[in-house]
Amino acid sequence: MSHDVKFSLGTYFHGTKADLKIGDFLQPGYSSNYEDDRVAQYVYFTGTLDAAIWGAELAKGDTKERIYIVEPTGEFEDDPNVTDKKFKGNPTKSYRTRYPLKIVAEAVNWKRHDPEVLQAMLDNLAKIKEAGIRAIE
To answer: What pTM value is reported for the model?
Structure first.
């Protein structure tokens, strides 16, 4: 972990297409939510509902998009995939951890991004992939 390790409490979200239950744990070491040939070294989560919606919408798979409210079980750090690489500071409140995240609830009645906004994001991600850039560390 970096020197910018956090322990603060707040409301945190994880967007995915995985069908999990309250009390389950999200852990590193499983297939990535976004790349078929990658094992996740971290579990990613956010302090904003919008960033979690993106996570759910962009996750691989054809199952229902879900947003879980999660509780970190250990230290975590700012997600370097967005912090300072794409946005100064951490406006999306995006984090990663090597410790499990406990699912404490499921968010319901959230609104998806408009189809054209989602398609623009998918198009940008396709361009990044074509350029050979791996989006997630």
So the answer is: 0.80
